[in-house]
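Many introductory courses stop at the sequence. We go one step further.
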Amino acid sequence: MTYTTVLFDLDDTLTDFSGSEYAALEEAMAKHNLTLTEEIFTLYRMINREVWELLEKGMFTKKEILSLRFDLLFTQSGLQGDASQLNHDYLISMGRHAKKVDGAVEVLEDLASAGVRVAMVTNGAEMAQKIKLAVTGLDKFFED
């Protein structure tokens, strides 16, 4: 069987999402004069996982959960701020802190040299994903 197209997810497949998450959140929070602690980070990750599960169940849209996670973080941690703006800054920081996983470029180069088209499927926020692709240089491999 010959494949003509291969679909990839970006986060934790071609880029190390988990490895850049803390640095990105720390940077975004600092921009809002907030300090990220391990306790706050743990709370954020729990909230983030829960709201993505709500999205999967159809209870919210992606746009809603992106700000909701920070609304809930503020409520549960006692921090104060603009959830929508923090989310925006976080998405930009996630893109800027993106790192390729080992072997990602080699796999994509091998597919390109074999004439296989590669496309991305992702549930990530479009703005962050585009920045990640540009920062890592992986954008040159993707048509869609």
